[in-house]
Structure prediction request, 123 residues.
Amino acid sequence: MTNWTNDELDRIAAADELEMAPRRDDGTLRRPVPVWVVRDGDDLYVRSFRGTDGGWWRTARAVHEGHIRSGGVDKDVTFVQVADSEVDDRVDTAYRTKYGRFGDAYVAPLVAARSTTLRLVPR
Prediction:
């Protein structure tokens, strides 16, 4: 398994948005959509603002592969579903810390969407 470099982690974590393009069943990429990304240690996480109704999230969860672009980093990734309440607690805190300036109307749906937490693993 490939790991993120410190430079990649820093650049992606510093960016406000990440362009997410999950791979479809037929191998093509969906059109990129902007999502908020947070860092926890040496890992990067995303959640669906629309919860399990998010189209990009449903595709990412089904196929587990895609492409991201953020902070000058352009990478193919694997999406790993997170089912760990301790990780989710840290991701909640990371969303509140990084994006709190946008207000609760934006942050609260992401904190509530814990079931959509995906870890981004570079390929």
